[in-house]
Amino acid sequence: QLQLIGSAGGWVRAGGSLRIWCAPSGRTFLDHALGWFRQRPGKAREFVSAISSDGDRTEYAASVQGRFTASRNKNITMLYLQMNNLRAEDTAVYYCAARPISTIDDTKLTYTNAVPYDSWGQGIQVTVSP
Asked: What's the rounded Cα separation, in Å, for the pair 103 and 75?
């Protein structure tokens, strides 16, 4: 398992932008599929975005499609979530997650369910005011 360290959260007005990040302490994300999830107040944790271990594929929840962009740096030591045109309903604790791939055939898979991930960040509070 990776120890995932996340950025500080933030507060922004509706329509604004914010970027959060996540990094594996002392390691890289090599051979790991990555994901972002969030938990809104009073709601269950939900999928936000996923990146395949080779970085070629990304997947987004319909609620954030076109507004959020997940990415990795070239050294695969950082995972980012760029959030634009934020809405009040995006207020949540955001979690990064990582899952090691089992075979080379898994390099292009993305995982939208939280169950396969075995490493989780501590949670990043994002607050969007109306």
From this structure: 21
